[in-house]
TrEMBL record:
GO terms for molecular function: NADPH binding; oxidoreductase activity, acting on NAD(P)H. This is NADP-dependent oxidoreductase. Pfam families: ADH_N (PF08240), ADH_zinc_N_2 (PF13602). InterPro entries: ADH-like_N, ER, GroES-like_sf, NAD(P)-bd_dom_sf. Transmembrane segments: none annotated. Gene3D superfamilies: Medium-chain alcohol dehydrogenases, catalytic domain, NAD(P)-binding Rossmann-like Domain.
Length: 314
């Protein structure tokens, strides 16, 4: 079967079309005929060697991709009774595992990592959901602002930040979000109640709206210490790139890792249903043939992409 991966870590051109053995579903697993795989920043980290420490003893090739959409074509023994051959599904994929990631015509994953695709969504649209929405869900759950409270979201125009705004709004929270001038309408469309200008002074701008600081902040822009002053004494900050503080003033820092929720079927399914209901929006920046994965990575690294780039394996 065709897959896209790297034999050696490097730049976008390190990505190659590979011919790999077709995987077979084992106990508790399902095989998916992939139609679309979203391209995420963590895929770039795999390509450049940033995840090598998580793959001790593994030998190349390494196949990126944590987000897949497609059709189940094989059920392993004891696979979840929720699922059936021929069903349209989405999956979170552990690309640092021995089977590799989602950039392949067929993938085998635990049944618990697979849920029905959102009704009405194309494969490309559906492939953009789970990794980023689950990250946002974990971040909001970590800061644990009660309904009626206020949460701040940085990087709100991005994939994780946008979902954090939408989920927080659905949770009944007041949302303060940042945005560049060109993204204000986009972020307002996600449901943000207040929008402040993004940048190094974002914490001060949040404080002009909430002088005592917000009880919770999702740091989608990875500004770490720059945004801590926006958080109230004793509040909480969710970080997305592993930063763990310290933050001072009793502010707790919660590093969020989506890999911790790969088999959290209940939350994965809830996110899919929220997308089907229009609570979460699906944003595709562009769909490229799988063979053009290097181009997709170059576009992502250039910055400014709104929505997700998607590789077409159909």
């Amino acid at each position: 079967m065709k897959a896209i991966g790297v034999e050696e870590f490097g730049g976008p051109d390190a990505l190659r079309v590979l011919e790999l053995p077709e995987p077979q579903a084992g106990p508790g697993e399902v095989r998916i005929r992939v139609h679309a795989a979203a391209v995420n920043p963590t895929d770039v980290m795999l390509r450049t060697g940033g995840h090598a420490v998580r793959m001790p003893g593994r030998r190349p090739p390494f196949v990126p991709g944590m987000d897949a959409a497609g059709v189940i074509d094989q059920l392993g023994p004891g696979a979840d009774g929720r699922l059936a051959v021929g069903q349209r599904v989405i999956a979170l994929v552990l690309f640092v595992g021995p089977r590799g990631g989602a950039y392949a015509e067929r993938i085998v994953v635990p049944a618990a990592s697979v849920v029905p695709a959102p009704d009405g969504a194309s494969f490309a649209e559906a492939s953009t959901l789970l990794m980023n929405a689950m990250t946002a869900r974990l971040a909001l759950d970590a800061v644990a602002v009660t309904a009626g409270g206020t949460v701040a979201v940085t990087g709100a125009a991005g994939a994780v930040g946008g979902y954090a705004v939408e989920l927080a709004t659905a949770d009944g929270l007041t949302v303060i979000a940042d945005a560049a001038a060109r993204d204000v309408e986009r972020v307002r469309g996600f449901g943000a109640d207040h929008i402040v200008e993004r940048g190094a002074e974002v914490a001060a701008r949040v404080r002009t709206l909430v002088p005592d600081g917000v009880p919770g902040l999702v740091d989608g822009s990875n500004q770490t210490t720059e945004v801590v002053p926006a958080v109230a004494d004793g509040g909480a900050l969710a970080s997305l790139r592993g930063w763990a503080g310290p933050a001072g003033r009793g502010v707790s820092v919660h590093p969020v890792m989506v890999a911790d929720a790969l088999t959290d079927t209940e939350r994965l399914d809830a996110l899919s249903r929220q997308a089907a209901d229009g609570v979460l929006s699906l944003h595709v920046a562009d769909v490229l043939p799988a063979d053009e994965a290097a181009k997709a990575h170059r576009l992502l690294e250039a910055g400014g992409v709104r929505g997700r780039l998607v590789l077409d394996f159909s």
